[in-house]
Amino acid sequence: MKHLVIVESPAKAKTIEKYLGKDYTVKASVGHIRDLPKSNKNAIDIDAGFVPNYEIVATKRPVITELKKAASKVDEVILATDPDREGEAIAWHVAEALGLDNPRRIVFNEITKDAVHEALKHPRAIDTHLLRAQEARRVLDRLVGYDLSGLIWKKVRYGLSAGRVQSPALRIIMEREREIRSFIPETFWVIDATVTTKDGDSLTLTCSDEPRDENEKDRIVAAAENGTWSVANVTETDRKRKPRPPFTTSTLQQAASSRLGFTPSRTMRVAQRLYEAGLITYMRTDSTNLAKQAQAQAASVIEQKYGADYVEVKNFARTSKNAQEAHEAIRPTDLSKSTAGANDEQHRLYELIWARTVASQMQSAAVKQTRIDATTGDDSVPLFKVNGSRVIFPGWLKADPAARGEDVELPHVATGDTLTKQAVDVIEKETTPPPRYSEAGLVKELEKRGIGRPSTYAATIKNLEDRGYVTKEGRTLIPTDTGDVVSSFLEEYFSDYISDSFTSEMETELDDIAAGTREYAATLTDLYTPFHADVAKKSKEAKKITDLGPAPEEWDCPKCGKAMNYKLGRAGKFVSCSDFPDCDGARTKDGEAIKDPEALGNDPETGEPIYVLEGPYGPYVQLGNKPPKGSRKKKPKRASIPPEMNVSDITLAEAAKLLSLPRALGEHPETGKEISASIGRFGPFIVHDGDFRSIKEDDPYTIKLKRALEILKEPKRGRRGVEVVKELGKHPKTGKQVKVYKSKSGVHIKRGLKNIYLPEKTNLDTFTLEDALALLKKSK
After folding, report:
1. What are the distances in angstroms from CA 5 to CA 96, 104, 274, 307?
2. Which of 18, 153, 324, 398 holds its CA 20 to 30 A away from the CA of 532?
3. Do 40 and 103 have their domain in common?
4. Residues 263 and 350 grouped into a single domain
5. pLDDT for 693-738, tens place per residue?
C-alpha cells in the first residue's frame, strides 16, 4: 500500500522522509495554499454566516499540481501539518484543493522517528473546532482591519492601517511614550561610603535614603565623613530559588532577547529550523507541561551530570491567561544532547532551551541572603546598607549558571563591630522616566494583558515596523509621528475596541470556538455587528485630521507671518501655514523655515527655471513654477534628490539630469507595454506593468531596453530580501539558468519551489554548475 504524507515545509518533509519506508512519499504544501482575496469585496459573505470565499494563492498553483499528481499515484493521503490551528487549517485547505474525501490527519509534537510512527498509529479526522477557531480569527482580523483601515484612510491619511491586535499593541507603546513625555526629572544624590572591617576587609555601603534636597545631602555627607562608624545590624536569611518552568513561545522570545540579543522574529525563525530538523518540540505553545518520558530522560541526564541530589521531577501550572492547545513546552527531543544545530545561532538557541528544560527538573538553589546595616553614630542620619548573597547549594543553577546573576559575597561582621571610614563618594543623578518597550518587553506585556497569541507576537511587532508606526533603535521600540497620530485617533474614537479588556475577552471567545463551546457564526455576529455599526457612525462623526495642533508661537510663517500648524506628511510631522492652501509657507518639524530659493537656471531643453526645494518629504528639484490657485495647468515636474548628493552644491546639469527621469526604454515585446527607468525611495529601478525591479548594478540614466528585459526575466526578489548572488549556467535537461540565491535563511539553489541549502562552509567562488547538479541530485 502506497502512502503520500503532506506537511508544510520542505525541510520538515526531508526529515520525516528519513523515518518512513519506501512505501511513503513526503511532500510539502510550502505553507498556506489558499487565502482570502486581497480585496475585501466578496472575500467574506457576512449574510451567509461569515462564509469566507477562499482563492488559491497564485504562487502555489504549481505546488497543488504537484500534490495532485503525487496523490493520484498512492492508495492513501495522510495530512501531517503542524499541531495547531494554522496547521489544522492548512490540512483542510489541502484536502479541499486536492478533492480528498475523509483524509487521515496525524499530529506529532516533535519530529522524531518514534513520534512520527506513533502518530501513524492514531490517525483522526480534521478537527473542525480548531479549523473554525483559525477561520474565525482570520475572518475577524480581516473585517476589523478593513473597517478601521478604511476609516483611517479617510480621516488621517491614505495607505495607513489598523488591526485587531496591532492597534492595542500600538496603544500600549504610545501610553508609555506619553508617560515619558510628561515626566519631569528630579535631582537626587546617591551617597556611598567605603569602610574597612576590624579584620581589614573592604566594604562599600550605600545610604538607604537618596536625598533630593541639597542641604540634606550635605548633612548626610558631613555625618559620614566625621561620624563614628559601626555595624548596626546583620540579617541573614535562608532563601530558596526555584527553577523556572520550561519555555513557552513568549518566554523563549523574552529569554532569547535578553540572553542572546535575538529579536522575536529571529527567535521563531531559528526555532523553526531546529524543529524541522527534529531537534526540539513544536515551538508555538502556551504550555509549560513536559511529557512523562521527557521528565524521565531529564532526571537521568541530571543524575549522570550532576548527581542524584540534584533531581526533583516536577510539573508546572500554566501561567498564560488564555492558555490553549494541549502541547508540550518547548524542549529538546533528546536531552542527552546538550548542544545541537546546524550553525552558531541554532547552537545558542538550542543550548538555551536545553538548559531551561533540564533546570526545570532540578532541586531549588539554596541561597544565604545577607544584609549589613551600618550607622555613622548619628541617629538622625539614615543607615547605610549593603546586600549580598552566598550560594549554599547550587541546585538548578548548575545547569543554567547564566541565570545566577552577580552574587556579592560579604565579609563576616557582627552587630556592634567598629568600622573605619576610608572614603565617601557622592554621585548626582536625575530620576528617569519609565523605559520604552523593547520587543521582548512588549511581548511580555501583551501576554500579561491577554492580547493576541504568542505565535503572532513577532508578526505583530514586524507589522508595526513595516507600517512605519514604530522604529527600532537597538532593541528599543520608538513610536513615530505617524504611529502617534493613528493611535491617538483610535483612542479617541474606538477606545473600547482597542482596550485590554475587550481584546482579551475577544481572545477568550475565539478560544471557546476551538474548545467547541461557542458557535462560529453566532460569535462573529456578536463581535462584528456592533463594531461595524460603530465604525459607520464614527465615519460621519469623526473629523478629518488635517492639523495636529498649533506649532510654537515663535514659529511664524516664513512667507506671510501668520501662525503655523503641525501636519502629518509621509515623512512624519511638518509645520504648515494656518492659511493653507492660500499660503504654502512651511517649516520642518523642528521649526527650520522651508523657503523657495532662487532658480538654479533654465532647463536647456524646455527653457523653464529649475529650483532646488526642501519639502516635508525631503529635498527635491522642480521644473517650472507652481501654477496659480485654481489653474488647470499641470503641477510642475519634480524629482527627489538622492541622499548621497550634496544639496547645497547641486549644479544645473545635475538637476536637469534628475528631472530626466523616468526614462522610457521602449515597449515589452510580449505585452506591448512601456518599460521605464527611474529612482525612487529605495533607489534606482525599472518598472513594467506594475512589476518594479531594483537595478543596483545598472544606471537608470543609461540602461537599455535589452538589459531591462534580461532583469525582468529574473525571479522577482521577495519582500524577505532574496537575491541572486551567482549564475552558474544552464541546466543540461531543463535549459533554465541555475542560480545561487541568498536570503535570511541562508545560501541556496532551487528545484522548483523548493530551496536546496548549500553546506555551511561552501566556497561560492569555486562552487560550479556541476556542484549544483550533484547537490540537486542528492537532495531528491
Report:
1. 16, 10, 21, 43
2. 324
3. yes
4. yes
5. 888 788 989 999 999 998 888 866 554 557 778 888 888 887 778 8
As a whole number of angstroms, the distance between CA 584 and CA 182 comes to 33
Q: What is the DSSP string of 389-417?
A: EEEEE-GGGGT-GGGS----PPPP--TT-
Q: Which residue has the cell 567562488?
A: 765
| Cell numbers at 509, concatenated | 471567545
Give the range of the structural domain holding residue 753, as residue numbers without chain letter: 714-780
pLDDT digits (tens, 9 = 90+) for 601-611: 888 878 888 88
CA-to-CA distance for 279 and 357, rounded, in angstroms? 13
Give the per-residue pLDDT at 26: 94
3-state secondary structure of 284: coil
Residue type, 136: A
Q: Which among 508, 541, 574 is the end of a domain? A: 541
Residue 28: C-alpha distances to residues 15, 55, 170, 557, 581 (Å): 12, 19, 36, 62, 57
Total number of domains constituting the chain: 5
Q: Do 47 and 111 fall within a single domain?
A: yes
What are the C-alpha distances in Å from 475 to residues 170, 192, 212? Answer: 16, 32, 32
- The pTM (predicted TM-score) of the whole model is 0.70
Cβ-based neighbour number of residue 633 at 10 Å = 10
Cβ contact 36:53 at 8 Å = yes
Residue 674 backbone dihedrals phi, psi, to 5 degrees = -70, 145
Burial class of 437 by CB neighbour count within 10 A (0 to 12, 13 to 18, 19+): buried
Q: Which of 285, 280, 288 is nearest to 346 (CA)?
A: 280
Q: In the structure grid, which three cell numbers stand for residue 250, read together?
A: 513568549
Catalytic machinery residues: 282
- Examine the domain organization and report whether 231 and 378 are in the same domain: yes
Distance CA 120, CA 261 (A): 39
Cell numbers given for 567: 501636519
* 110 DSSP assignment: B
* Residue 700 maps to a domain: no
* Sheet strand arrangement including 737-743: 723-730, 737-743, 746-751, 754-757
Does residue 163 lie in a domain region? Answer: yes
